[in-house]
Predict the 3D structure of the following.
Amino acid sequence: MYTSMEALVKKDMLIGDVIQKYPSAVDVLMAAGVHCVGCQGASHESIEQGFKSHGMSDAEIEEVITDLNKMAAVDAENEGKAITVTEKAATKLKEILKAEGKPEAGLRVDVAQGGCKGNTYALELTEDAGDALVLEEHGVKIFINKQDQDLIKGSTIDYRDDLQDAGFRITNPNNQGCGCGKSFS
């Protein structure tokens, strides 16, 4: 359980650094009303500065930092796993599989060539794992091609549904971002 002695996220840390180290922080920040997680401010504003610019009180900032630390502790536990699936992503995947009439199928995650950095993700619902690594988390199956394991190790599959768009998102701590926002190296 999280205690303040174990603080992984502190108010003087840059927002961008927190997001890079703990990708799940995006959800906590957005839930707190801080939607500029991808803007330039994230690269030079501390959590405290960013939150204060959004009109948050010191007590509200401490509450969000507590939530960020709880999330960071979960991310730290998942570090080194081949891939992590959030409960939200698993729930959505189950809904899709049921609607497609394929409750026993899983989600194949492939790394494909494309984008400005050379690689992109290809997601496919399939019942055939082939020779892929089969992982099960939250009651769903994820198939990962063995040759792609090193490229996606430690990634998190999440599902987001917000005003701008909806869909599965893969947050990969190993990738070097790109200008197009769709690829990695």
The radius of gyration is 18 Å. The mean pLDDT is 81. The longest strand covers residues 106-114. The chain has seven helices and seven strands.
